[in-house]
Amino acid sequence: MIKGDFIDNLPKIYGMYTGGFLAFVLLMAVLEQLGVGADTIGILFVSFTVVIYAGIGWLSRTMQVDAYYVAGRQVPAVFNGMATAADWMSGASFVAMAGGIYFGGHGYLAFVVGWTGGYVLVASLMAPYLRKFGCYTVPDFIGTRYGGNLARFFAVVVLTVASFTYVTAQINATGTIAARALQIPFEVGVWFGLSGILLCSMLGGMRAVTWTQVAQYIVLIIAYLVPVFWMSNKQGFGLIPQFVYGDAVARIGELEAMYQLGGLEAIEGAKKGLKALSTAHAAAGDPWKFVTLVLCMMAGTASLPHILMRYFTTPSVKAARQSVAWSLLFIFLLYFTAPALATFTKLQVLDPNLATGIIGKSIADVSALDWVQKWANIGFVQIIDGNGDGLLQLNEFFMRGDIVVLATPEIAGLPYVISGLVAAGGMAAAMSTADGLLLAIANALSHDLYYKIIDPKAETKKRLLVARILLLAIGAAGAFVASLKLTSILGAVAWAFDFACSGLFFPIVLGIWWKRANRPGALAGMLFGFTAGSLYLYYVAPAFLGNDPWLGIDHLRFGIIGMPVSLIAMVVVSLMTAEPDAETQAMVDEIRVPSGKTVLDSTH
Amino acid sequence: MTDSSQRVVHWARTKRLMIITLTIWFIFSFAVHWIADSLNAFSFMGFPLGYYMAAQGAEVIFVILIFWFVRAQQKIDQETGFAEE
Question: Which domains, from first to last, does chain A contain?
Answer without folding.
Answer: 42-354+417-499 (1.20.1730.10), 363-411 (no CATH)
